[in-house]
Structures are given as structure tokens and as C-alpha cells.
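Quick bug: CASP-like protein output formatted oddly.
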Amino acid sequence: MKEDIPCRSMATAPSAIAYSPAHQPVPTPSPYSFSVATARWSSRPSIYSFILILRFLALLSSFVSALSLVAKDPSNFSNYSELVYCFIISILAFLSSAYHLFKGVFDIAYRGVLIPDMISDYISFTLDQLAGYLLISSSSIAIPVTQQMDRTATLWKAAVISICMSFATFVVIAICALLSGYKLCKRIM
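Here's what came back:
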């Protein structure tokens, strides 16, 4: 005898359920992770690699700015409150750049997310705006002090190097602020 096998309709087939819009996989949150469909990294440089290079440049220039003031004559440098302010702001810019660089490298290395992308975009935008403002204000405050110094002193040379590198850090962080603002606007819209 033949057994009656129930016939399934096409609407309840497992393949139709697997491809319905309700069962689509969630997109990967990290810009550094790759999907299984591509199975390889893109060969063209992305905006994220460019931002990492900029973050490294900001880290390097803020480190040189802070180091130039302290390395020459630390006892004479502390007599000028404007140069101390420039030093502190350079250290804060260094720490901000180190955080951003660490997060970017961590995301690439582990193809994951250290901090969720939405929160990270807000943090990046806020820190870039704050660091940019503080860097340009510290550079503008330190310029009149260097004009009053003796131009043959080693502290004068160190202050000029620090101001130039602080301004270079400002330019790099301003570009990063534009890019983080772009990413944030893209997320909002």
C-alpha cells in the first residue's frame, strides 16, 4: 500500500522561509569587518584607513610638540604659564589621538567593535572639536610669549617648534573633525 504523504505548498517550504525579508542576517556593525559574500578585503583604500593615518600623524605631531618644550630646559619652561598650557593641551591631544588610533587598530585586528559605532561617532566628533579648539587657543596664547623671549635662548627655539607642531596637530585634527562630522551626518540621515 501506498502511504499518503502530505504535500507541502511553496509558501511553507524551508527555502522560502530562509530567504524572507524577516530572516535576513543583520549587517556587520564594524566598517573593518568583511562579509562572507566578499570573502576578502577591498584593495582600494577606504576612508577608515585614511583616518587612521591622520590619527597617527596627530599622535606624532602632538608628541613632538610636548616633547620639544620639556626636553630642552624643563625648569625654565615652567616659568611661563602660557607654555605650560600649550604643553598640557599637547598632552591631551596626544591622549585623544592615542585613543582613536587604538580603537581603529583594535577594530581592524579583531574585526569587531570596541565601542558601538554610533557612540564612537559621537565621541570622535566631540573630542575632535574640543581638541581642535584647545590646540588653536594654546598656540595663539603661546605666540606673544615667544615674541618677548630672547631669540638666542634654547627655550625660544623649543617654544617655536612646539607652536609649529601644535598648529600642525590642529590642522590634522581639523581634517579628522570634518571626516568624523561627515560620518556622524551620514549616520543621522
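Actually, after a second look the formatting is fine. Confidence is low (pLDDT under 50) at residues 34-40. Closing.
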